[in-house]
Structures are given as C-alpha cells and as structure tokens.
Amino acid sequence: MINVLMIEDDTEFAEILSEYLAQYNIKVTNYEDPYLGLSAGIKKYDLMILDLTLPGMDGLEVCKEVTQKYDIPIIISSARSDVSDRVIGLQIGADDYLPKPYDPKEMYARIQSLIRRYKKASASEDEKTSSEFHIDEKRHEIFLKEEPLNLTPAEYEILSYMLKQHGFSISREQLVYNCNSLKDKGSKSLDVIIGRLRTKIGDSSKNPKYIHSVRGIGYKLIG
Questions:
Q1: Residues 73, 75, 79: CA angle, nearest 5 degrees
Q2: Which of 142, 72, 75 is nearest to 104 (CA)?
Q3: How far apart are CA 201 and CA 139, in angstroms?
Q4: In sequence order, what are the residues at sequence separation of 6 or more whose Cβ sits closer than 8 angstroms to the Cβ of residue 12?
Q5: Which end of the chain has the least Cβ crowding within 10 Å, N or C?
Q6: How far apart, in whole angstroms, are the C-alpha atoms of residue 172 and residue 136?
C-alpha cells in the first residue's frame, strides 16, 4: 500500500480524490490544518499532495519546510493559476505541480511516476553509470558516446534534466518548469525542443532509441 499525506482545506475535494485512489491501494490521510499536517509524522508517508491556499500558512512555506527536513516526493495541487507559484514551488523542492481542476486519473499517474523514481533511486544510479550520455555540468556540455553535442541552453536544460531522471517517466509540466531558458511556457516550445534534440542525437519519434514518448504523461530517456 502507498501511504499519501495530503494537506488540503477543501474536504470534499480531498474525499473524492481519496476514494478514487483507494481502488489502487493508495491510502490518503488528509489534514485541513497545515500545522497538523507538518506534525503528522511525515517520515511514515510515501508521498505528499500539497495545496497552496491553506489556513494560517501558505503552501509554499509548507513545501519549503518539508523539503529542508525530509526526503519525500511532493505534488503541489492548487487552483492558483499564477505561473510564479509553479516556478517557485518547483524551485524550492516540489517534484510536480498539478493545477486544479484535474482528472483523478492524472493524479494517479503522477503518483505512480514519482513513487517509481524514489523507490528505484539506486537502480537509476546504475543505469546512469552505463548510459551512453555523459554530462559535464561545469562546462555545461553533454556527450553522447564521448562526442560533445552542440546544444542550445534550452536543449541542454531539457536533456540534462531528462538524464537526471534517466529511465523514468517525466511529465511535460516537470520538463517545462525546470527549463528556465524557455521563454514560451507552452507545450509547443517543448515539442520543438524535443524534436531538435532527437535530430541532434540521431533519434526518431517513430522508432526511438533514446527519447520515448509516454502517452498521457510526457517522455522517458533510456540508453
């Protein structure tokens, strides 16, 4: 069973989501009060779903406090539409941002993706070691089979982020909001960059070797 700590003051919304996730053996424990949520024994949970508009304490403050003390995946779930909230949330340690309203199926997919990433961290490290890609972060260069790739800043950011999540599915939102070089935060810009990356690494969208599309989620880098 996956145990999820939810901090959400909309009890009706929390109940609907909890009932949906229960059918997948995911138990959600919700707290309306962020202070109670923070003192709920965070270490015993596998993941946190966090609203931003909370009584007495802003959700971004909660996120910052949790990431400073615990190693737990965090999905921000909020109706706040300000892009800066998303950017700040991801910068201070949240792993994903899902704007309300959303289909519970999407939250389930995000939870599964994050749990796999955290549970298989050691396996991921082994895959990185044997990867055909290599990152030189000091020189901001990425090598494929020991050959340097000629990348734009946005291409470098996207590919380096994918390499850090090597072998795991990554949502489109994660990619967009972790690439500061993207001036247009729309999905079209991401599609263009992914297309250019595929060309530069000799990949194909129809028969990919490295960058694979994951239906309903985003992408996965292997190889």
A1: 165
A2: 75
A3: 19
A4: none
A5: N
A6: 24
Degrees (nearest 5) of the Cα angle 145, 197, 203? 65
Per the listing, tokens 């199926």 go with 105
Reported as a single tens digit per residue, the pLDDT across 97-120 is 999 889 999 999 999 988 887 776
121-221: CATH architecture: Orthogonal Bundle (1.10)
Which residues sit opposite 3 in a β-bridge? 27
> Which among 218, 36, 223, 30 is positioned nearest to 113, based on CA atoms?
218
Q: Which residues, in sequence order, are bridge partners of residue 26? A: 2
Amino acid at 71: D
Options 1.10.10.10, 3.40.50.2300, 3.40.50.300, 2.40.50.140; CATH of 2-119: 3.40.50.2300
pLDDT digits (tens, 9 = 90+) for 192-204: 889 999 999 999 8
